[in-house]
Amino acid sequence: MASLDINDVTKFYALRDGQRFEALGCVNLSIGEGEFVSIVGPSGCGKSSLLRIVAGLEEPSGGEVVFDGIAVAGPSSRRGMVFQEYALPPWKTVAQNVELGLKFRGVPPKERAQIAQRYITLVGLQGFEHRYPRELSGGMRQRCALARTLANDPDLLLMDEPFAAVDAQTREILQEELLKIWGGHLTPQRRKMVLFVTHSIDEAIFLSDRVVVMSSRPGIIKEVFTNPLPRPRADESRSSPVFLEARDHLWGQLKSETLKAISQAVED
Amino acid sequence: MGGAMKLLLPAVLVAIWQYVSAWSPLAPGLVHALPPPSAVVRDAWTLLLNGELPQDAGISALRLLAGFVAAAVVAVPLGFGVALWPLFDDVVDPIVEYLRPIPPPAWIPLGILWFGVGDVQNVFILALGVFFPAILNTIEGVRRVDRTLIAAVLTLGGGPADVIREIVIPAALPLVITGLRIGLGVGWGALIAAELLAARSGLGFMVQSARFAFDTPRMLTGMIAIGLLGLAMDVLMRAVQRHWLNWSLATP
Asked: Both A83 and A72 in a single domain?
């Protein structure tokens, strides 16, 4: 079964003046089957870079990402990604967007349409198949992007602050829907691996099995927190003592890093 | 009502023109400099019926089509090449940057030297006018493509060809068409200039030969035909834009 190992991954960029811009320190992380792992960290800590490296969109400067026993050398439909900016081509309708990955993988048009319809229904967009992204709300656009990625049936779901651009209420609803779709009520064997980058501690606790706290730049893993919040989770989970305790703990870890990141930003 | 209001001012101006050129005390002195609209319409009608106007307009339109297509099939793929491959950019960009500031009419003497007086020279000058706006807008259109869309295609299992077909081409299309539309306007102006100076047919030639014959109504008829054809082209291009790019115009 699928597994993901991030081994000694570093990332730096060469600046014009010959100096190095260190984005990621040395990151080691393994994700098991059916596990939902969130990464939280201050702005600029390299968490999005790390996700892009796992996706194969960027190369690490050192170390490697091993997916299913093979070193990642480029993007693959088995590692599907959902972007903060939705990444929906505005000239494609909902249905055309959801079919996109299936088209790339050579699924015949008729079958493509059937699969797409199933995922459109799963995310609650039935009736909007022929709308263009501009005609949808932010929440609906992200549902469409999620359906598009899920239609490819990836083994690993990479999510880069997917709900950061929608309002707070929609965000909580989308979190619940994501858990439902992912299978918070199922056994781990029937779930996909998820690596989820977010700014929000609450979001990370509500969704994940483990929360990875990253330091300010250059980002390294400060703590891997095993989330005791029981599944299945619902609205009430957000006010449970376990949730609040986890939040206090993670905020304690994150606050000093955030302060460091702020002073870094001032220096830059 | 709005349409009627828009026609009001032109109608008043034409009426004043008719009065000044035909009936006012100034009229006798204006016979050659500015004949009245009635004389222009009479002349245009004659030229329309005897086939001279349709023939010259047709020739100009054909030159326009030939030069436009020739310039577009070179400029658009070249623009994609420049924007997508750095090597292409290094070679082509300086040439484009040096040649672009030379207005197409400045090429007319060289064009006559190379191609003589007539179709090829006219089409060459016109194509220059179309070429630069077309290539520059194409380059800009490709460069502005949202990188996240490309990343999305790659993580969905698409390859480089899919990126070009599904993302780069459609994303660049609005600016490509805008470039072609601007180029069509510039090219039309360049063509008329070329026909005024070095042609034996076409609307520009018609205007110029009317000047030699002191036939001012014919000159004005030619000018009006040039304006109407230019307007028709722009309307056509806008319709193409609307038809192909309805996604970019959709409102929430």
From this structure: no
In a domain, A254, yes or no: no
Across the interface, whether the CB atoms of B252 and A132 are under 8 A apart is answered no
Model confidence over B177-231: pLDDT tens digits?
999 999 999 999 999 999 999 899 999 999 999 999 989 999 999 999 999 999 9
Question: What's the pLDDT tens digit per position in A6-64?
Answer: 999 999 988 888 888 888 999 999 999 899 999 999 888 889 999 999 999 999 999 99
Question: Do both A209 and A197 map to the same domain?
Answer: yes
Whether A13 and A68 map to the same domain: the answer is: yes
Domain end call among A153, A172, A203: A153
Domains identified in chain B and CATH numbers: 53-85+93-245 (1.10.3720.10)
Cβ contact (<8 Å) for B148 and A79? Answer: no
A93 and A141 together in one domain: yes
The domain in which residue A35 lies consists of 1-77+158-163+185-238
In a domain, A176, yes or no: no
How many folded domains does chain A comprise? Answer: 2
B158 neighbourhood in chain A, CB within 8 Å: 100-101, 104
* ipTM for the complex shown: 0.91
Interchain CB distance below 8 Å, A52 and B252: no
Q: Within an 8 Å CB–CB cutoff, is residue B155 touching chain A?
A: yes
Note whether A211 and A90 are same-domain residues.
Answer: no
Q: Which residues of A touch B252 (CB under 8 A)?
A: 134-135
Residues A84 and A215 in one domain: no
* Residues 160-179 in B contacting A (C-alpha not used; CB under 8 Å): 162, 166-167, 170-171
pLDDT tens, residue by residue, A206-237: 999 999 999 988 889 999 999 999 988 988 99
Tell me the CATH number at A70. Answer: 3.40.50.300
CA distance A52 to A59: 8
